[in-house]
Amino acid sequence: MDVIRRENPARVAEVVGRVPVTDADGVDAAVRRAGEARREWAARPIGERVAVLWEAAEAVSGRAGELAVLLARESGKPLADCRGEISFALTYLRWVCDNAPRVLAPAEIDDAAGRLVVRRAPYGVVGCVTPWNAPVILAMVKLAPALAAGNAVVLKPSPLAPLAVSEVAAALPAVEVVHGGAPAGRALVTHPAVRKVAFTGGDAAGREIAAAAGSMLTPSVMELGGNDPAIFLPDFALSGDDYERLVMATFATSGQVCMAAKRLYVPRARVAEFTEAYTAAAERVLVVGDPLTPGVTMGPVISGPAADRIRALVAGSLSRGGTAVPLGRAVGDLESGYFVTPTLVTGLDDQAPLVTEEQFGPAVPLLPYDTEKELPARANAGDLGLAASVWSADEDRAFDLAARLEAGYVFVNTHNRTGMSLRAPFGGVKRSGYGREYGEEGLLEYVQSAVVHAPAAFRDGGAGLPATAYPA
Ligand code: NAD
């Protein structure tokens, strides 16, 4: 049996753990087991299901410290971030437990002509394929609502961070985990007994999975990449703390976050002031090193190819006339891992690959503008539309521009995790995907409406419909 050996991206000689690769027969067996588990699970009242999920949250919470260390070692994310990810995943699971019974309750339509009930029916077995950059929370935003609704789940995490999320999934009922790369993912999303597919990841895999699921008429939710602009209006007023938050909005998880600030639009007249304050803030808060070293805020990137890709994007930027400004401070040995120097790049045109592509790594372009009129078109350029941010001393002005941005989520005076809300739907527009996670919409993603109707015309004493009648 093939095995995935996951190395520590901060010390690549160290193997953090191993998981077996699941072949097509193994995926089939996992889907069948999930199908069996789901019969008993779906038959339970939702109150019982959320009670079981709540207990699972308690069990994982008791192991959160140990799981955070495992997550840091397999993903290269700083330990504090890993603790935060696990705690946020449990907060979200509890939010689902609190809200699913209300949101997924059958709704009675006030229909004078009879009894008309809309049930929220689970799909059956849901197939989830997830990435490595936030493996626990990105699985939990699928698992929690799917399970609360009465589905069973087969999860295929990324082979680049399969360990901590497998431990979390093992604490949940009606969940099977399969391992491997694209072949295991394909076997899962094309399995005839999988009734819904939930995917988070890159554009290329997303297109292939959406097409494969579509060929089976299996509905899907797609959370894909973003190339998110952070726009500073001419009146922006940032404190030192704001600059620090902004720096981390790009460089948390070494820039490998779908909704990271990936393009910075700054009024030309204030570029010098911005650059100086930004680099000073980075010097204070951006500490590159081993994820387990206290005080480190940026670890390595996920793999050798990812490091090569980012370095090539920066080198290509220099050859187009750009200037690289290295940021932050390094601590300890950076030679043994996939470390990339965090970099601000200035002097680029809008056609530079670092501007047009999702870099998904620790390099960000600073792009001056002359008039606010340029902003919507420049910010909306390209196919992606996940998130964006607008920074202004005048909140109304920021909201006005936000309404003209093609993005599923616009942050005002912050960006990235600090602007998320469990209660709000999250997802992309344009080629950043479809369907939503979080909020009530994220719960409704895992049910289908199923109506039960007893028309008054045919109930006791009803006269029936006239032969010519058509329901109005
Ligand atoms: P990826 O697309 O390479 O892989 C994601 C998952 O899909 C992995 O489990 C992988 O094994 C699997 N996979 C890859 N090809 C497949 C195929 N053809 N069929 C079935 N499964 C397949 O993405 P990644 O490198 O793990 O993650 C980075 C991308 O994810 C970035 O583009 C990022 O923006 C995006 N992302 C989006 C969100 C969001 O919420 N919108 C969140 C995090 C990451």
UniProtKB/TrEMBL annotation:
Residues 5-450 form the Aldehyde dehydrogenase domain. It catalyses: an aldehyde + NAD(+) + H2O = a carboxylate + NADH + 2 H(+). It comes from the Bacteria. Pfam families: Aldedh. Gene3D superfamilies: Aldehyde Dehydrogenase, Chain A, domain 1 (3.40.605.10), Aldehyde Dehydrogenase, Chain A, domain 2 (3.40.309.10). Keywords: Oxidoreductase. The keyword Iron does not apply. The active site is at 223. Its EC number is 1.2.1.3. PROSITE patterns: ALDEHYDE_DEHYDR_CYS (PS00070), ALDEHYDE_DEHYDR_GLU (PS00687). Belongs to the aldehyde dehydrogenase family. PANTHER family: ALDEHYDE DEHYDROGENASE, ALDEHYDE DEHYDROGENASE-RELATED. This is aldehyde dehydrogenase (NAD(+)).
